Amino acid sequence: MCRFTCRAWLSRCLVVPVLGVLCSMGPSVMAAEVTVEQLLAYGPSQRDVDYEIPDKAEVSKCEVKVEKNDKGSAYVVYGPQSTVIRRFVDSDGNGGVDQFRYYKHGLEVFRDVDANQNRKAEECFWFNTAGTRWGLDPNEDGRIDEWKRISAEEASREAINAMIAGDAQALATVLITPAEARTLGLSKEVAEAMLEATKDPAGQITKVLSGSKVLTKGTRWDRFDTSMAWPNLIPASSGKASIDLLVYENVMAMVRNGEETGFVQIGEMVRIGDVWKLTVIPQPVEGEQTIAASGLLMQPSLSTTDATTDTTGLNEDVRKLLEQLQALDEDSPDAKSSRTAIETYNVRRAQILGELSKVAETKDQREIWLRQQIDGIATATQLDGYPDGIKHLQAIEAAIAKQDKDSPLIPYTTFRRLLAEYNSRMKNSSTTEVAELQTWWTQQLEGYAKAYPQSEDTPDALLQLAMVTELNGKPKEARQWYEVLAKNYRTAQPANRAIGALRRLDLVGKPLNLSGNVLGGGSLDLRQYAGKVTLVIFWTTWCEPCTEDLPQILAMYQQYRPNGFEVIGVNVDGPNEPIKQYIDRYKIPWPHIHEEGGLEGRPAVEMGIINVPTMILVGKDGKVLTVTASFEDLKKQIPAELQRQ
């Protein structure tokens, strides 16, 4: 029996616009008389929801059923294909609907929550194919006032839609705020410049839209675009913030006007908890306009000289150059400086370091100055802060080789030049060019490892070569490189991950030895799960595929756990990530091993984890069934293993 009557439900129902018409069913309708048509009259509080709406001819094939839950009940509407298309839930059993859920292809895509049951939504959730957003509307006016969760891609779309609509309030929800700048612990200079760039959204929208051919009323956001393979992690030690920052540099949004394609520079984006925020107002790329410089957070700051350096007792040439370097660093660019100023600083600094290497009194001193020069040029080149940096590094290689063809500085320079060139190419490669670039990169790494087997950077080169090869779907070739690294460079730190990767790749048919400290206290050993089919998931809070797969894993867990299926999470987040909040928000019921170090911590290194999520399925006998499980694989393997005697 349904715990709430139609009379009570309809008197408290959420009133939302549906094609301009308000729901107005009267209280005289009895529960037995609730029809499909009446329930389908309700629609989401937000306008951008793509949910299933049956054609008029299909309505007669739909069906309403009453469903009980732990505390309350729900009306469920099944579509023509017998999949759920609506669910209106009384989650607490008080006789009033507080959740309005909308589906597409059987998956929930949107939910309105009316916690105070005043017929207005305070929270909105997008799920599954509709994305990840969680918006708050505390004043219940039908507009999102604050995001509790939004991905970088979705934030870029919200920004474009707000710009097109001339909606400064909506744009402000995805711009960084003074309170968030304080939360990140941004330096005073960075915070002031960032907040200056995002002030007066209404005025800036008007200015941007004036005469724009890229952003018009007919413009539609198409996709998120960045040359970065993944976000950058800026450590707190950089001095730009008091905590580690996760940042996308130079994000672009591709937009469409009919058949025409355009670009809008979103700029630098930073993650604050579960929310990605813009740090500048989006700017359309018009005509021959060039793309602006990278954002404040990713601008290089390469000063390493102590301003109090004592130059007494040094020869005159060295003393003069050190004083020049000291003066240059004292007036080094800050977050507000132009790209030209940063490039000028980096070039001049490299020149002084090169001159210091020439007048150095000993070979060791010469090498120290050259290493600083090489590191500075390579780092600045990767951050687009050094013009013709690749050519300059090539010239340094040639000059060193001319003096000493066996110098260890030759491979040292070569490796940093290759890294700088790869990163520069990656930033400027289109999606279709990435595969070709990866091939070039593996060729360069392989050539480097063979040419310089004794170089200090060869273990790193081999690890990158093995990892890229494995990620490109070539586990056999990757195994060969892991083996070379593990065998020939066993004392080098990268060898530990190679040994772990070999252990992981060889796991099928063998027991998985897994144990560690559990979030919330205590410890866990996989042997405690003897006789169970167990899925081990290496994951992080920032991994979007981890979040995307989670609803399906949760459903599988609920379905098969009574039959002997268990899940163990291994969280490999770094410090300051909202791990507990993430677990609480998604109501993840299984335990999680977590130890310090993130992807460089013991659990990740011991298994040679190079990507998340990594899912390992363990059979009843404790032996591994697969180390490359996808959700589609799991749907077949788990029930089959559970049925095995």
Key attributes of the depicted protein:
4 domains, alpha+beta, disordered N terminus, 645 residues, 23 strands, eight-stranded antiparallel beta sheet, 18% strand, globular, 21 helices, 39% helix
Side-by-side strand order of the widest sheet: 3-4-5-6-7-8-9-10
Radius of gyration: 29 Å
Terminal Cα span: 40 Å
Average pLDDT works out at 86
Considering DSSP H and I runs of 4 or more, what fraction of the residues is helical?
Answer: 25-40%
The largest sheet is: 8 strands, antiparallel
> From the helix content, strand content and strand pairing, which structural class follows?
alpha+beta
Strand fraction: 15-25%
Count the E strands.
23
Q: Uncertain spans, ≥5 residues at pLDDT below 50? A: 1-32, 301-312
Tell me the overall shape.
globular
Counting H and I runs of at least 4 residues, what is the number of helices? 21
Number of domains: 4
How would you describe this protein?
This protein is of the alpha+beta class and 645 residues long. It folds into four domains: 6-147, no CATH class; 150-284, no CATH class; 299-402; 515-643, Glutaredoxin, CATH 3.40.30.10. Helices cover 39% and strands 18% of the residues. The chain has 21 helices and 23 strands. Strands 3-4-5-6-7-8-9-10 form an eight-stranded antiparallel beta sheet. Strands 11, 12, 13, 14, 15 and 16 form a six-stranded antiparallel beta sheet that branches. Helix 9 (316-330) runs antiparallel to helix 10 (339-359) and helix 11 (363-382) runs antiparallel to helix 12 (389-403). The protein is globular and about 95 Å long. The relative contact order is 0.05.
